Amino acid sequence: MIDTFAGRIGAARLLALSVACGLTVSVTYIPQSLLTSIAGDLGVSPGLASVLATVAQIGYAIGILLLVPLAARLEVRTQVTYQALALTCTLLMVAVVPNILGAAVAFLAVGLVANISQVLIPAANRMSADYRRGQTNSVLVGSLLVGIFGGRVLASLCSEWIGWRATVCAFALAVLATIPATRWALRDAPAPEGGAGAHIQLVLTTVRQAVCNPILVRSALTQACVLATFNALWTVMVLHLTGPGIAWTLGQAGLFGLVGLAAGFFTPYAGRLIDRFGARPMTGWFLLVLLTAMVGILLTNSTPVAFGIVMFVATWANQSALSGNQVRALATDPQRSAQLNTAFSFIVFLGGGTGGLLGPIMYAWQGINAVATVAMGLIVLAIAQWRVIPRTATDRLPLSQLSAAKP
Predict the structure, then answer these.
(1) Which residues does the UniProt record annotate as the domain Major facilitator superfamily (MFS) profile (predicted)?
(2) pLDDT tens-digit readout, 17-36
(3) How far is residue 388's CA from residue 390's CA, in Å, rounded to a whole number?
């Protein structure tokens, strides 16, 4: 049934979906690049302002559990349109908050409705043939990375030019502008996967399916550790680069996001490796690369050029592991990909929110070395989780052979 939609997602439509994914996820990460500006305007310390990044991530995880299951009964275009309109409104709320408490509530609301990419990715997977699913997934995952870091760079530069409040307004208008192209790309998307049951039933069904799917649970826990590492490091990046050791300006620190942006453009190559060699073995290699990069951070964090190279590798490996874990989790039941993705992403982003909170705490204690040490521990835990993911008969098959391998 999946192959029925194979021809429906050409390059132009994939580009439109990629732009929507990248932009909507970027708004949950812009607090990281605006920390100094927000802290100064609201009269709080940068450490306290860093809570906003964590709040946005936690809101994102909760929104995944509460909103993404609606894809089982709503047309994808309808759900994405309403969420994009809601995201525009919540960003405008952020732009007018008077204090840190108001900012926390507003960013929580932003996170709740910003999970549009978690609706688009499973829809795109269902619109792709088996042999292209890894590449399609990696393109969209790569667009998330481009959005996250492209947003960081733009937010940092714009905040110095027009202030952080006007910057948030600009992002709100950009989200609004993506709606027509996204609706066009989804014009003949697959019908909803489930019936018209009560919303609470959809959420409970999603939870039950996750609990009964050990491959999904283990893959999600593996990626939760990886995303916790990613957020722990990048949440404190501006603090580290503008600190006494390197002493860059806020604008220079924002441009460091180009490292992550470049990594995003290389993520689709990971999809080709997954398609060719299989999701499970390639995920293991990505995790080993990431562990090596954590050691590199300890050795290079005071040397900007070398540090940038290591962070490029770490960021690429992070997103490549996400692609591998997500492809494997969704492949357990492609016809229920939206519900599986809900459970997968909820676990992953809950771990990411934890990392976003852990990073500033460790940085305040012993600086970037403490953050990198904790990150190493998280990756070791991720590798342990990856090792115990139940094996299947198709683990070593490339995705191009999965259809032939299915009974």
Answers:
(1) 1-393
(2) 999 999 999 999 888 888 88
(3) 6
